[in-house]
Each structure stands twice: as structure tokens, then as C-alpha cells.
Design goal:
By secondary structure, this protein is mainly α. The chain contains 14 helices and no strands.
Amino acid sequence: MNVRETKKRSAVRMDFATQDLAPAYFALVMATGAVSLAAQAMDLLLLAHLLFWFNIGSYGTLWILSLWRILRFGQRLRADLTDYLRGPGFFSIVAGSAVLGSQFVLLAGQERIALLLWSLSLSLWLILNYGIFTAFTIQRRKPSLEHGITGTWLLAVVATQSVAVLAALLDAHWNPMHRLEFNFIALSLWLWGGMLYIWIMVIIFYRFNFFPFAAEDLVPPYWINMGAMAISTLSGSLLIVNAAKAPYLHSLLPFLKGFTVFYWVTGSWWIPLLVTLEIWRHGIKRLPIRYDPLYWSVVFPLGMYSLCTVHMAQSMDLYFLLPLGYAFFYLALLAWAITLAGMVHHLGLGLRAGTENRIPHPLP
């Protein structure tokens, strides 16, 4: 096979991999980062660092695929941005960038790289936050509620809280002269994320209980119902720790503790219901389990619930909660391994199919 033919086959594979790349695929980075940080919180440092390096590779690969998609399938990407089901998935890029930045702070001590990732995630958050919701608002043709809302929308909350988490971590490791600014940004985003969760969750809860709900409708991102509250709990726990060196936050300490517990309890409430619905979906309705990139949206909440429970227990002296955090860590690690195996198998089959079938010509 000559060089020209090799390049052609490589381009075909890239087209196949990117033409319909799920906007929420950066949930892979979110999930891996959450499990890695939970391992670090439990002093499993070797595992935490292995997952950290895997996450760096995953993050870089996803950006390469995303840039290729922008160049080759720009019109499809623009259509995804205004799609009610796929559009909110782009917030996973924000959350993935911020979660990786948190790993750079805690696992590598690289605050400058983390600051760059924080700046990127904040910029993307501003662009997507106002771009996507503006596009939804001005659309003439809009889907009905039951066909337009899923748990993917809550990635907007996760993105907001992930930027707050990284700001709080940078505050704890950065020059004291910036402490007020970073604390204020983290606090503001923490509060706004909670408000946004209330807005979106009211719609989701209404959709759950007042519209027909088939097994096929219970897509994996509904686990973010819990995950969004878990990362909100983590953000609050970090602000509580930072309050010891920040008088402004210290004055709000009772408020911070109360709302952090509120977020944790809300996230915890969802777990039995989501487990019951999964049993109904796969056990009673017999819906088969097949790999989907959206399953990373199940791994992330499990890992983040473990991480936030450990941090809340330590920041508020609630040590009786630590065994719960440890239990969810091993559950999240198992879910991560299973999902990774499914992804590898799926990609292997897909790449072989991509070389055997002609890829549609990119839209202009």
C-alpha cells in the first residue's frame, strides 16, 4: 500500500469517527477525571495518576476529532448546536476542561496549566451558555417538552460547577493576593449553578411525571440529575475549606454548610429512584444494554458522588459518611472499566466498518 492510499484510508477513518461525533463525548474526560480525583482523595495515588495520564490522552484525542469535525462537517456541527437533544452536550467540553484542570492542580501541582484550562473552560462556558440558550430561544420551530428535554441539559449545571471547583482549587494553591477574586467567582458560579439546576430540574421532573415515559426515553444522561448535585456539593465543600483563609467566605460559613448539605441530600435522593428506573428499563422492559457514548454520563455521577461525599465529610467533620464515599468509588471504578471496554469494542467495530464502507461526502 503506497503513502497516498494510506493517507486516503486514514482520512476515511477520521471522517467515519467524526461525522456524527457525539457532542457529549467529553463526558469521557469528566468521568475519568472524577474517578481519578476520588482515587487521589483516598490516597490511591498510583491509580489516580494512571487515570490522569489516560485523561490527558483522551482530552487531546477528543480535541483533534472535534477540530477535524469542524473542518470537514461544519454544517452538521452547527446543526447539533441548535438541536435540543444534542446541543447541551457541548457543555461537556467545558466540564471536561475544568475537571482536567483540577487534576493538574491536585495530581501534578501544575497551577499554571490549570489556570490556562480554567481560562479556556470559562471562555467556552460564556460562549456556549449564551450561544446555545439564545439559539433555543429564538428558534421558530421548537420541539414539545417530552421530545426536547433530557438529563443532558443538566450538563450546563455541571459545566458551571466544574469552573467553580477549579477556581476554588486555584484559590487554595495560588497567591493570596488573588484570593478574594477567585473566591468570589467560585461562590458566584456555585450559586448560579444551583439556580440553574432548579430551573432545569423543575422541567425534567414535570416531564417524568406528567408525560408518557417509555424505556427508550430513560437515556443515560438522566443520571446527571444526581451528578449535577454531586459536583455542586464538591464545590461547596471546597468553599468551606477556603473559608478558613478568606474572611469574606468565613462570614457566609453557615450558609455554605447549609446549602452544601442541601445539594448532597438532593443528589442522594435521586440514586434509589434512578436505580429503580434502570431495573425497570433493562430488567422488566428487557431493553438491551449496548455501548453508547452517553454511558459516560453514568460513570461521572458515580465518581463525583464518591468524591463529593469524601470532601463534604472531611470539610464538615461528618466522618460517618466516609464509608459511603468509599463504596461509591469502587462502584464508579467498576462502571468506568465496563464502559471503557464497551467503548474499545465499539470503536474497533466502527473503524473496520468505516474502511469497508464509503463515507458520505462532508456537507458544505
